[in-house]
């Protein structure tokens, strides 16, 4: 320790002094960036009058009271949860499946190496972009107002929501495939659909499966919330329990959702790892 | 019968790949096109199945100008003109059988092919094609598990399954080692003789061109600078075509490997150890 200290001192005698690991110019820039972020943060805090000081004693008292009301979760409520949970999973399964089927033609149309028609390509791409900017909750609200309260609008919302994600991911995968295989299929007399079936599809199949499972995970989580706007599933139940101040029921419900979502995520992750 | 009449091709970036090509090829010929890379060999071959489209002139295949073909006619043309690529272009994640049967795509209706419903005769034909290149034992192997030479043999089988009148081979041996190269060329020559399929091969190896071709066409800068039977060709001819002295890397070598096909076991063994 002392030896290394000595040797640094010795070199300092002979060489120009280096004060820091970054140049002064960079240091100034970094300080500026931090200052800008801090002032933006402060400005927003003042505008909304939301400050970190709100995490005070009262806040923690509230948290304590809340936990007191929620604990212990009423496990007996689970029997009422299962049917709604099953409904949520069914909604995700249906939504994902339909989206998977329809995303195939859409993603081919949105891939510029397969779809040579510029107008069709940009139209599809534009529509998909529009679709993706709509949050699933808004989609659910729209469909509930169109077809009424129930499971069906929820399924529609999930379908359109996952269609946007899937088609985007898949079209990018298609754009990166090996085109020489496509050329060979074309050269042996295949028409466009045959070329897609025999040269494009085999190349994207692992990614397609992986993306589908990923979207299924997202859909499970999304379908939990959909019930809040009346689009079916377990969210409806959760909303009711909170509205009637049955916090012990709500806690049981939340725990069950947590376990189910985490296990589905885990299984689907393992399958995806095995695929890629 | 293939006839080029004043065929030119200018790519969109302005490159003149073909300049006033006049050429006539009769049924059953084995032609090797030689030239440096960028001489227009690939473009010439790809014009014949319209993977590229010449910008002027007439290209007649069996007295029909293929430059005016619509999509449907093109499909028919490509069914009858099989193509072999340098990197064999197999669908790597599909089995050997699936690759070979895709040679029937042009004959099969879209709906049937999508669900893999091929007639029994087609499946039999695909298997016979694999047998001809001695790779029938790999029929259900995924094609990315084969060695380079084996993949190229599968791509020959794919072309055979098309039952073509013409085989176009674009640098089929450029990424193979010398013994495997000779093996692939031997198969092509065999098919050419037995089935009377017009075969046009792009090569840049002089010794291989001399060994397998009936007729050699030399290209430089998009023009045909030599066209004649192999008997008229000597080293001077190649120096004219290439516009420079012949170098070591213009030769593939290894022609002692040109033995009966059954003796090529080393490469299969190599692939087996890899699997």
TrEMBL record, chain B:
GO molecular function: ABC-type phosphonate transporter activity; ATP binding; ATP hydrolysis activity
Positions of region (Disordered): 249-275
PANTHER family linked to this entry: AMINO ACID IMPORT ATP-BINDING PROTEIN, PHOSPHONATES IMPORT ATP-BINDING PROTEIN PHNC
GO cellular component annotations of the record: membrane
Protein name per UniProt: Phosphonate ABC transporter ATP-binding protein
CDD domains: ABC_PhnC_transporter
Pfam families, sorted: ABC_tran (PF00005)
Alphabetized PROSITE patterns for the sequence: ABC_TRANSPORTER_1, ABC_TRANSPORTER_2
Keyword annotations: ATP-binding, Cell membrane, Membrane, Nucleotide-binding, Phosphonate transport, Translocase, Transport
Stretches with biased composition (Acidic residues): 266-275
Residue ranges of every copy of the ABC transporter domain listed in the record: 2-246
